């Protein structure tokens, strides 16, 4: 990088910090991120070190798709980074992403975690699992998502809202496996087994198991890691210690998987840099950092798991369905959740 361009990017950094929108310049890439900064920062530092490309992030919990839509061709954003397939799928439907063709990505990311139309790429994976009370649920007593509708569990299940993006994907997976009528009956069964109206987040449900409000809960796998290592809120370690982790459907289609992922925006001013970033994020080096930061699984086969994941989660069978098929069922899933009054 020349002295002039260093000065320029320094000036632009100031602009990025103080201006409401990111500014474009050479040898940089601008990211709109639903993933929190602390998860991404070490990765972006490694990316800049390796490529000389500066990476700027705008983090937000919501509204990034709307922002992309409003900004249109003037958007400074090159990459959309999300914590779930939901927003990526929505972004495709709204025409906000362009396709990316890369041998590196194809080699590193299994096809089931990539969009067949090439609009998005999975970067880390997580499973939606069953957290079961060590005291009140015997090993082997519940082994599948289908079991959740069994009357044996009446008044014993906790979950967050059925309309939450994680649950919509799970219902989408059920729709793919069983079709409309059976999935509706299943949802009704699960609803009638709930210990309380759906509320809170995934960790709230594990707390409720610990407190005896319910015996089993639905939650994403990485929350276990976040709880069991939580020195700031040590009570969460006790929540995590009160449960066994059940990866469902091990004798069948495998546990439901979701991704955190990314896509390149339709009007990316730094198209080439954006692709380099996505490619970098699929490499072993980045995969390790990224997965460990949030107790997720690397999307790339062969990237070593963190010791914690190995200790508590081991090997498990993953559903082999392409996530795009599940994503395509999400609208349908939302309708079903409403129809059965799941959240009422
Ligand atoms: Fe989450």
CATH level-four homologous superfamily name of the largest domain = Periplasmic binding protein-like II
Stated plainly, the CATH topology of the largest domain is called D-Maltodextrin-Binding Protein, domain 2
Mean of the pLDDT scores? 92
Low-confidence stretches: 1-21
Task: Walk me through this protein's architecture.
With about 350 residues, the chain is α/β, with parallel strands linked by helices. The protein has two domains: about 170 residues, Periplasmic binding protein-like II (D-Maltodextrin-Binding Protein, domain 2), CATH 3.40.190; about 140 residues, Periplasmic binding protein-like II (D-Maltodextrin-Binding Protein, domain 2), CATH 3.40.190. It has 15 helices and ten strands. Strands 1, 2, 3, 4, 5, 6, 7, 8, 9 and 10 form a ten-stranded mixed β-sheet that branches. The structure holds fe (iii) ion.
Topology:
Elements (H helix, E strand, L loop, with lengths): L2 H16 L9 E6 L3 H15 L2 E6 L4 H8 L7 E4 L2 H9 L3 E2 L4 H6 L12 E13 L23 E2 L6 H14 L1 H14 L8 H9 L5 E5 L1 H7 L6 H7 L1 E4 L10 E9 L5 H11 L2 H10 L3 E2 L8 H6 L10 H5 L2 H10 L5
Parallel strand pairs: 1-2, 1-3, 6-7
Antiparallel strand pairs: 3-9, 4-9, 5-7, 5-8, 5-9, 5-10
Report a brief summary of the structure.
The protein has helices at 3-18, 37-51, 64-71, 85-93, 103-108, 165-178, 180-193, 202-210, 222-228, 235-241, 271-281, 284-293, 307-312, 323-327, 330-339, and strands at 28-33, 54-59, 79-82, 97-98, 121-133, 157-158, 216-220, 243-246, 257-265, 297-298. With 344 residues, it is α/β, with parallel strands linked by helices. The longest helix is centred in the N-terminal third of the chain and has 16 residues, at 3-18.
